[in-house]
Design brief:
- Strands 2, 3, 6, 12 and 13 form a five-stranded mixed sheet that branches. The protein has a four-stranded antiparallel sheet with strand order 5-4-10-11, with no helix packed on it.
- The chain has a single domain (31-146), classed as Immunoglobulins (Immunoglobulin-like, Sandwich), CATH 2.60.40.10.
- Helices cover 10% and strands 31% of the residues.
- The protein is mainly beta.
- The chain contains one helix and 13 strands, in the order αβββββββββββββ.
- The radius of gyration is 21 Å and the shape is globular.
- Strand 2 (34-40) and strand 3 (43-44) form a beta hairpin.
Length: 150
């Protein structure tokens, strides 16, 4: 009678693949978790749209991770509908739209149509002066400290 191991080569291979996927967060879609904060004139701001523009690649077709700040000025990035952002170097823009009517409680991701309280100062990736590096694994970014706009 032939005795077989509980983990025969085909089964062992499946377990190794599963272990590799679970051990490597970057392998599952290539998106890294990213949290950051936006501070304006020393205070956190709510409702600011933060967009990360990749420094490399095709500027027209590149995916731009983005997020919206909460009441504590904290945002988490998402790329399209998936949480996280690809690792890499980014130029960052921040637009802080005027408050909307009380009936409109959602701020769309993207460039809002309401006037920017920052007067466009941080809206151009080439001129914002804001940059970030996203590395493999969880990322907790240093706060983006925006200067008062006159």
């Amino acid at each position: 009678m032939r005795r077989t191991s509980a983990l025969s080569p085909p089964r062992l291979g499946r377990w190794l693949v599963l272990a590799a996927v679970l051990a490597c967060p970057a392998c599952s879609g290539g998106l890294q978790t990213v949290r950051g904060k936006v501070i304006y004139d020393g205070n956190p701001i709510k409702g600011a749209v933060v967009i990360f523009h990749p420094k490399t690649g095709d500027a027209v077709t590149a995916l731009r991770p983005s997020g919206v700040t909460d009441e504590n000025g904290v945002f988490t990035l998402a790329t399209q509908k998936d949480p996280g952002a690809p690792a890499g170097e980014y130029q960052v823009t921040v637009i802080w739209p005027e408050p909307r009517a009380a009936t409109d409680d959602k701020i769309p991701i993207g460039i809002p149509d309401a006037p920017d309280r920052l007067k466009g100062r941080y809206a151009d990736p080439e001129k914002s002066g804001l940059a970030a590096t996203i590395k493999s694994g969880p990322n907790e970014l240093a706060p983006f400290e925006l200067k008062k706009v006159d």
